[in-house]
Amino acid sequence: MGTSNSLCAGSHAGPSQRPAMSETQPSSRPASEPCLDISVVTHQSSRWLDGFMRSLLGQHLPTAAIRLLVRDNGSVDDTRAVWERWRAQAGDRFAAFELDWGENVGFGRGHNANLARAATPWMLVTNVDLEFEPDTLEVLLARAQTADPRVASWECRQKPYEHPKHYHPATGETLWSSSACVLLRVQAMREIGGYEPALFLYGEDVELSYRLRDHGWKLHYVPRAAVWHYTYEHAAELKPAQFIGSTLANALIRLRFGTRAEAVQGLLMYGALLAVPQRFPGQRRRLARGGLKLLKLAPHFLRTRARSSEHFPFRLWDYEFARHGAFHPASRRPPAPWSARPLVSLIVRTMEGRRGRLLEAVASVAHQTWRNIELVVVEDGSDTARELVEGWRASGAFAAVRYQALPRGGRCLAGNAGLAMATGTYLGFLDDDDLLYADHVETLVDAIEAKPGLGAVYSLAYEVRTDVKSLEPWVYTEVAHSLVHREPFNRAVLWHHNYMPIQAVLFRRELFEEHGGFDPELDQLEDWNLWVRYSLRRDFAMVEKVTSLYRVPARPDHAADRQQVLDDYYAKAVAKHGQLQLALNPNEVVALAQGYARQTGLAVVPPAVPAPAARPLAGLRRLVLGTPVLRLMYHPLRRLYHALRRVRGY
Q: CB-based contacts of 68: which residues, under 8 Å, 6+ apart?
């Protein structure tokens, strides 16, 4: 059981002073004393119970520390019989195994009944159509017991499809928590009265989350605590009950937590659904019944309006904005120690005066679900990060931590020092003002290992317009998240412009060994030049999921200054790419141009007169100038033409 005995410690440990390090803390409390209530509500659920119970019994956390509270809502299949069988087989392994039968009172009221019986500081609310990973409960309890006392919930990651809502990659804070599997502080739940009983099914988790935040509580997401949730038969499945229940809940939640305009918008949106084409039989009839319920419940929700100035987002029928790539599946790996899996080196460049940004960036690395990570920190022109690095090294959060302080030499020299120090099979960069979502490394490792011939993989990334209030301490407001680049790999397009943000790429170490690091003459756009060189002979591949973010200025004047710097370096970078074309033969250059034409959807106009056989590049000028967008590549290709004439005698 490892250190599981420690997880039944007291419930009010202070917050950690370093970003997300060890997952367990020592304690002398006996393992046999219960420290967790698990609340389960079932209805016609028999097909899921065996898998659920086997995964629960396989937890690292001793079952003697668990009180299992079951409420069945009027099942008429063999759900109750299966529960009775499991209580007879394994009931004595739990601190308690309580079964409660009753009519179907809905999801929230069922869990409220279990809340009334809770006897520990923590209650896990969970569906039964899921299976826990072996350390799920261990990780959740460890995080809860070391959290800020004002945190009320810790949400599990769902696999194979992660819930797409945004969360803060460094702190794990989220604006609402899914109740498919969430650990709740019993004190907070009782303070606010539990789930809203008026919501029968769907939306009750958003309402609970908003009400917790309205009372001053915070909510966290814990991606390392994962469950396999079998809620969808296939990706993007439409479930009628979910459609009806969630739309009704959205309109009601707007009445309680939305602005006046948002509340009215919800009512209008609901009414408009009656006029749209049906997506399933009986849609309008069920919506009409829901509309009558909406009118009946509206006064109750209006009388209990939010009392705080917290931000409660609404985005049409959704709430927090969703990360692109919701149905990109996670891989199921056979059990293996992390030390046996590929080491990934993440290189962070920093400098003096960026402590707050560096802390956030490294926190997002510490939260990665891929745990075999080597953190490489290179500080340009100072050694102010040394103390932080020593703390990270002592924490045990990383497989290895390396640090080098350099005389002031610029971004490229710092990056090259990091590349030279890194020992991982796969390498990546993280600038200290960028952040990684927790599944970033895992997602990219899965993709590159699925196709051994790839040189690198890259995922999608949000460009975040950020209004910086203070540099030290690091205080900012995120104004907007935008998906700017979403381009499948194409060498020709890459030679024209960069569509791979630096933190979004994971590449094989041998590319650095073969092609070297950054070009020191490029203090900007150095990553673009690197990707062009690394892709000369090896393909890259795009992963259709947002797994990171990078910041740009929100103020127009600052954004214009930043763009001017990039524009000044663009011609210099393009000239470097023109020199690289000497590494290609004429057929590869033509293929490069044709590939660009295919990617952009523009037809390549063939030469009017066939090119002489003795001069294979004679028609290339007409090829390029005959395609409008390809004219942008004309000058580097022209330089290549004359260079080839000198070198090869064409």
A: 38, 40, 56, 94, 96, 97, 98
